[in-house]
Specification:
mainly alpha, 6 strands, 9 helices, globular, 290 residues
């Protein structure tokens, strides 16, 4: 509906609209960061453990979670049907700018007291104030989720939700941006939802359709391991959480011990990776590469 309408526009007009969408998303996010006053020092260290698991009480916990998550694409990526190994260079290239963006975001929020990390469950070495495990999180988790996305595509030939995908996308855009404006004073909620909404809007207007439905299915599937891993990181099975949140800066609702904001955060991180990954595949197909 929207892309056919834009096809009648000149290239200059489409480019101006691209810049407008990017500028609006970044401007609103920056304005929200500038106008919000964050009260540091009130990170929640007790969230109500669902079920304590004694062997998780180790400083290697975060590292073990990353190793457990990352082993699957490397163990099963050689299977001929999905042939994920052949895509690994694109996966890492697509991941690089997203990782840089999220690490810079993470550094800022950690410094301002939006969230923090327990020394009890991390090795102790840090990079710009972040545990090294947190930095690896932005590489390992998207890689594992891209593996799920790619594997699902190898067995499901038709795009899921094809009949309702555009309606779903518009609904998600309105939902994300609406929540971002509504929860303006909650910097984590507003940032994750505003950026998710504007990224989806940009994709709807300017990216070639055909894989958003595939991403939505993969995202739903990744929610299962996401709840397990994030459930551990947020204190569901340990005496205290690995990642601690400032309650004044998020939505205030948790699923188990996982803040609902994390779902938008995960959506943004994973969709940004898939967006770039598919863009690189498209360029490779045009140039005749596999």
């Amino acid at each position: 509906m929207l892309q056919p309408m834009l096809s009648s526009w000149t290239q200059e007009s489409r480019d101006k609209l691209k810049y407008l969408v990017i500028f609006t998303g970044l401007f609103l996010t920056g304005l929200m960061w500038y106008t919000n006053e964050i009260i540091p020092g009130i990170l929640v260290t007790q969230v109500g453990t669902i079920h304590p698991v004694s062997f998780l009480e180790t400083k290697w916990l975060y590292a073990f979670l990353l190793a457990f998550t990352g082993v699957f694409p490397f163990m099963f990526g050689f299977i001929p049907k999905p042939d994920f190994y052949s895509q690994m260079p694109r996966v890492f290239l697509a991941n690089l700018p997203v990782t840089i963006f999220f690490i810079l975001w993470d550094i800022y929020f950690t410094d301002k007291g939006v969230w923090g990390f327990s020394k009890q469950y991390t090795i102790g070495d840090q990079i710009a104030g972040l545990p090294w495990e947190e930095c690896l999180f932005f590489i390992i988790i998207p890689t594992a989720c891209t593996f799920i996305y790619w594997s699902l595509n190898s067995v499901i030939k038709k795009e899921p939700f094809a009949a309702i995908e555009r309606m779903l996308t518009i609904s998600f855009i309105l939902l994300f941006i609406g929540i971002g404006l509504w929860k303006w004073e909650h910097i984590y909620t507003s940032t994750a939802t505003l950026l998710s909404g504007f990224l989806l809007l940009f994709h709807l207007l300017f990216a070639k359709p055909g894989y958003r439905g595939r991403f939505y299915l993969a995202y739903l599937v990744t929610c299962i391991p996401f709840l397990i891993v994030n459930g551990i990181l947020t204190g569901g099975f340990t005496e205290s959480p690995v990642v601690m949140y400032n309650p004044e800066e998020n939505f205030g609702i948790r699923i188990g011990t996982v803040p609902v904001d994390d779902f938008a955060y995960s959506f943004l991180m994973l969709f940004a990776n898939i967006f770039l990954f598919e863009g690189m595949r498209k360029q490779s197909n045009h140039s005749g590469e596999k």
